[in-house]
Design brief:
By secondary structure, the chain is of the alpha/beta class. The chain is built from 11 helices and 9 strands. Bound molecules: flavin-adenine dinucleotide. The site of flavin-adenine dinucleotide (FAD) has 24 residues, from strand 5 and helix 5.
């Protein structure tokens, strides 16, 4: 019996082909009995509609528990509240409450919408006024890129917990020690909710480098070397990606971590392989 518990993150599909890829990934990962599956939230009406649809489809057509990501970007409090109310009425009980990235992308300055929620702590408090949602929030083992110092980050995380968050999911990282140091820092600051590591299996190293740079995640030198020369060799890249992710989760597990959140990028293969290496087996096979 595995002592591991996982959750999977998906993004809302933009086309029919991507829709098919998403539901294939959901079907493949569902037998691993994730605690929940979450669906990200972008900017712009049509993207948001796709999130709402995907969350409701998970709710109505699978046995999985959906968690809807919701942000403060480009919407008044009333608009955000109405999305949350709609989720509550539909039976969605878990929200990942986020400030959101600036509409211009990560690295741009965030400007709160006039009449909107200022940050994730305010959003979490707003959600609790609508219904007793389970609330997860984001956190940053290498500090949020906009943050001037650690204290601001930890204070913000504490404010999110005071507003009702009961789980923090980390930004992705590649050094186990980065995670353990952050958990220690959080504990020293009196933060005792679960801090679940967000695991990003590497699908495309070049785009990973871009995203990591923007969100302040350090990529180890050794990892650059492992992916070097594999741009046109998808088979080997996938094997290397599984090994790299497995080494990270095994180090975390050895350090006492039992809960993992996977950024699946709507692909099941790597996340499934890493879960298997951790000892997770599909429900039917385990029964
Ligand atoms: P907050 O916790 O509100 O703040 C983040 C940081 O901003 C703080 O640590 C602090 O440094 C600074 N800050 C905020 N408010 C103040 C203040 N009043 N004074 C001083 N400093 C302040 N983005 C999306 O758009 N859609 C998604 O679906 C999505 N999913 C995510 C899932 C996870 C697990 C994570 C970790 C991130 C996700 N993001 C998503 C990215 C996230 O929106 C960005 O990282 C964003 O920049 C910060 O969001 P937050 O909720 O952590 O913000």
């Amino acid at each position: 019996m595995s002592d591991i518990s996982v959750s999977f993150e998906f993004f809302p599909p933009k086309s029919e082909a991507m829709e098919e890829q998403l539901w294939h990934a959901v079907d493949r990962l569902a037998p691993l009995s994730p605690r929940f599956v979450s669906v990200t939230y972008g900017a712009g009406g049509s993207t948001r509609e796709r999130t709402h649809r995907t969350v409701k489809r998970v709710l109505h057509e699978t046995d999985l528990k959906p968690a809807a990501h919701l942000t403060c970007v480009d919407a008044t409090k009333e608009e955000v509240d109405s999305v949350a109310q709609d989720y509550w009425d539909a039976g969605v009980r878990h929200v990942v409450a986020l400030r959101g990235d600036p509409p211009g992308g990560m690295g741009e300055k965030f400007n709160a919408t006039s009449g909107g929620y200022l940050n994730a702590a305010e959003l979490a408090a707003g959600l609790k006024r609508i219904g007793n949602f389970e609330i997860s929030v984001g956190c940053y083992p290498e500090k949020h890129p906009e943050s001037t110092d650690w204290q601001v980050d930890l204070d913000l995380l504490k404010a999110k917990i005071d507003a009702g968050a009961t789980r923090a999911i980390t930004q992705f990282f590649f050094y186990p020690d980065v995670y353990f140091r952050f958990v220690d820092q959080a504990l020293d600051a009196g933060i005792t909710i679960p801090i679940v590591p967000g695991i990003m299996p590497v699908v495309n190293f070049k785009s990973l480098e871009r995203i990591a740079h923007a969100c302040g995640t350090t990529i180890p030198r050794a990892m650059h070397e492992k992916f070097e020369g594999l741009e046109g060799d998808e088979d080997t890249r996938r094997l290397v990606a599984a090994t790299v992710a497995a080494e990270l989760v095994e180090a975390l597990h050895a350090g006492g971590v039992h809960d993992f959140h996977f950024y699946t990028l709507n692909r099941a293969g790597l996340s499934y392989a890493v879960c298997h290496l951790l000892g997770l087996r599909p429900k039917a096979a385990a029964a």
